[in-house]
């Protein structure tokens, strides 16, 4: 009889992950990448031997496979997986006696590994899952079997091979989220931390290692993402011995996580995606999210948000008229933004008082909500449940519910401070006020905002760090609302795109990627956000012509072309549109409705032209594709040249068309008559680019030709 499996081969979605538990050690990944096919047991054993280097008199600097929870006691001198102690002892754990069980399902290969460190009175369980889209994820459960144990770090690591010699991640700021940056994968550590109680603009969203010069369509890439909505630390590390690891976990402040006897803690999921090119890496995240048990209902509604139209200037008749105009144009959801509650006539008062203002809404919000529902639209309302103004009834009644680490409530940001949901009374008040309004008004949708980072967020009266507890309270609040109101949809917003992570996505139905609706900027923000999220989860609005965030003015066609490729919304004063603008907006809404099934289910693809001066971003489905072509800046050479249309089926034929007529001097000859070409020709040879001007995009469609024999 053969013994227990020591080497496990997980295979899903064109990906193989080979994991060894030899010598009773924690799991080490021997391969994470392209599918290896059926590999025999003796070949797996040989594969492990091929991963071992020749050794001299020390193993400390040898490039051996490193456990997914790296340990100092096993000669790992890099970022350790577990940092903690029991009053100064048990600070260098050595987990061993690892044993595994398989819990595979029809959609997932799942490996669960249990190991122990009896000298440290600790036990750890590692879960490794490979999902049908080829997305890998792992997490750890640490159990304390002794006296109080302080955890300072609990993170997991995934290895990448030596030919992954370039790093890529995303950086940014308010209204310019997720800008790409690259650097060599040099010896040492590239560390990205978020300390403001959310991923914020500091977190990388994804940390990617790949072959030099990789892009959307070529070069092997390996990327990680931490599914956690609080403080975090992600590290890309290369040792002088040749090991290359991508690791991630929570960032913990002192004494935030102390395990009592018998307590346990579960780490956030660390996600890993491999592919040839960034499009393939993104497709695994998209496939995973689309296959989750309770994805957002389809079709995704086109909405009107009132913020840029009225700001704090609320008037019942004006807003009912806006809802009627929106319904007439084909919109399906109406969202009343900030300014409807308490003393909230400006951003310096009222935040935290989730009671409809009788001053502004003497009849309450019921007439507006009722009219929206009569029009066949869903009704949405803005909340910022984790925040308060000091000038609010809530703070006057409960000043101790505002975070305070001992120096007072701290620096205001946007005239607001953070409500400590670790106080059960604060949590219950917010939950009860929100629940009452949801039930009374039949609220279908919440825009959930978060406009201030947590700084010295001390839980009163002790002043101990409250960041982690706040994130867990946020999750509990979201989970409770979803349990009470199963059909409620929620959008995550945090000063725009400051809290976009898969921990949040487990609980919400879409994100607001940025407060910047300037299409010149937003096309890039969405492009890089879509490395993690598919288009149907990225809310994007047609804003006012003049963008307050950048000072630019854009045509309606430019604003609409960019927004219509995602989950479409409008955030503009509809009453100010003339007849031509209203007709053009109606056409774009109709375009989105027509192509929405493709846009919200197809494969996202990208291409660059003219050295990045122009872009081609699209979505490809079984029946064809839709691409957005945009010249972002004037290239040195003109015309741009040929556009190769990525993602098409090489063996099928497509009818290629422009989405709108262009001037004669801008129209390439292929667009003046029917143009039918194979997918192989279109993605290998391509078509001559339309001669459009900067910031004057055009839609290019490739419709599958059904040929009869």
**Helix fraction bin:** 10-25%
Query: What's the overall average pLDDT, rounded?
Result: 96
> What is the fold-level CATH name, i.e. the topology of the largest domain?
TIM Barrel
Number of structural domains: 3
Total strands: the figure is: 39
Overall 3D form: globular
Work out the strand percent. 25-35%
CATH superfamily of the largest domain: Aldolase class I
- Provide a count of the helices: 13
Major sheet description: 10 strands, antiparallel
Radius of gyration: 27 Å
Determine the structural class based on helices, strands and strand pairing.
alpha+beta
| Secondary-structure arrangement, i.e. CATH architecture of the largest domain | Alpha-Beta Barrel
* Distance N to C terminus: 58 Å
User: Which CATH top level class of the largest domain fits?
Assistant: Alpha Beta
Low-confidence stretches: none
């Amino acid at each position: 009889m053969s013994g227990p499996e020591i080497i496990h081969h997980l295979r899903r979605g064109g990906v193989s992950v080979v994991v060894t538990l030899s010598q009773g050690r924690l799991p080490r990944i021997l391969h994470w990448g392209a599918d290896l096919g059926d590999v025999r047991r003796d070949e797996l054993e040989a594969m492990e031997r091929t991963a071992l280097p020749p050794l001299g008199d020390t193993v400390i600097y040898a490039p051996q496979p490193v456990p997914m929870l790296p340990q100092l006691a096993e000669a790992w001198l890099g970022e350790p997986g577990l940092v903690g102690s029991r009053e100064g002892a048990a600070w260098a754990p050595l987990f061993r006696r690892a044993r595994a069980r398989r819990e595979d399902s029809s959609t997932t290969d799942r490996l669960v590994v249990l190991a122990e460190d009896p000298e440290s009175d600790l036990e750890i369980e590692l879960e490794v899952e490979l999902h049908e889209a080829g997305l890998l994820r792992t997490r750890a459960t640490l159990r304390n079997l002794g006296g109080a144990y302080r955890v300072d770090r609990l993170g997991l690591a995934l290895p990448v091979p030596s030919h992954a010699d370039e790093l890529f991640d995303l950086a940014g700021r308010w209204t310019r989220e997720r800008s790409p940056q690259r650097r060599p994968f040099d010896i040492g550590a590239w560390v990205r931390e978020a300390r403001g109680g959310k991923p914020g603009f500091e977190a990388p969203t994804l940390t990617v290692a790949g072959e030099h010069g990789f892009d959307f369509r070529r070069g092997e890439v390996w990327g990680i993402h931490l599914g956690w909505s609080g403080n975090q630390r992600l590290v890309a590390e290369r040792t002088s011995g040749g090991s290359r690891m991508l690791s991630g976990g929570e960032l913990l402040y002192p004494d935030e996580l102390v395990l009592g006897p018998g307590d346990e803690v579960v780490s956030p999921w660390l996600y890993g995606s491999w592919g040839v090119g960034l499009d393939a890496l993104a497709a695994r995240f998209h496939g995973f999210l689309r296959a989750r048990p309770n994805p957002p209902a389809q079709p995704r509604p086109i909405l009107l948000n009132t913020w840029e139209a009225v700001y704090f200037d609320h008037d019942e008749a004006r807003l009912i008229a806006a809802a009627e105009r929106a319904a007439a144009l084909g919109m399906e959801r109406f969202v009343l933004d900030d300014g409807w509650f308490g003393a909230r006539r400006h951003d310096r008062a009222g935040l935290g008082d989730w009671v409809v203002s009788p001053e502004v809404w003497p009849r309450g919000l019921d007439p507006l909500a009722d009219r929206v529902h009569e029009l066949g639209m869903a009704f949405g309302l803005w909340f910022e449940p984790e925040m308060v103004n000091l000038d609010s009834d809530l703070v006057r009644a409960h000043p101790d519910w505002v975070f305070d680490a001992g120096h007072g409530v701290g620096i205001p940001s946007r005239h607001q401070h953070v409500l400590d949901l670790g106080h059960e009374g604060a949590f219950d008040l917010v939950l009860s006020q929100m629940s009452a309004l949801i039930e009374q008004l039949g609220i279908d949708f919440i825009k959930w905002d978060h406009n201030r980072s947590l700084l010295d967020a001390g839980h009163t009266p002790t002043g101990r760090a409250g960041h982690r507890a706040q994130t867990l309270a946020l999750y509990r609040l979201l989970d409770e609302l979803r349990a009470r109101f199963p059909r409620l949809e929620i959008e995550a917003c945090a000063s725009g795109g400051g809290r976009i992570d898969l921990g949040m996505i487990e609980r919400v139905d879409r994100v607001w990627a940025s407060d910047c609706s300037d299409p010149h900027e937003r096309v890039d923000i969405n492009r890089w956000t879509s490395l993690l999220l598919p288009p149907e989860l990225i809310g994007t609005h047609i804003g006012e012509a003049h963008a307050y965030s950048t000072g630019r003015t854009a045509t309606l066609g430019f604003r609409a072309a960019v927004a219509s490729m995602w989950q479409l919304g409008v955030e503009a004063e509809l009453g100010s549109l003339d007849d031509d603008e209203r007709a053009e907006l109606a056409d774009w809404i109709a375009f989105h409705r027509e192509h929405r099934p493709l846009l919200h289910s197809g494969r996202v693809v990208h291409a660059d032209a003219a050295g990045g001066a122009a872009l081609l971003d699209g979505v490809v489905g079984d029946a064809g594709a839709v691409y957005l072509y945009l010249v972002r800046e004037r290239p040195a050479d003109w015309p741009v040249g040929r556009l190769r249309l990525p993602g098409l089926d090489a063996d099928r034929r497509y009818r290629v068309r422009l989405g709108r007529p262009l001037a004669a001097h801008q129209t390439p000859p292929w667009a003046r008559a029917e143009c039918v070409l194979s997918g192989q020709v279109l993605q290998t040879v391509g078509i001559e680019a339309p001669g459009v001007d900067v910031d004057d995009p055009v839609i290019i469609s490739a419709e599958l030709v059904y040929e009869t024999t």
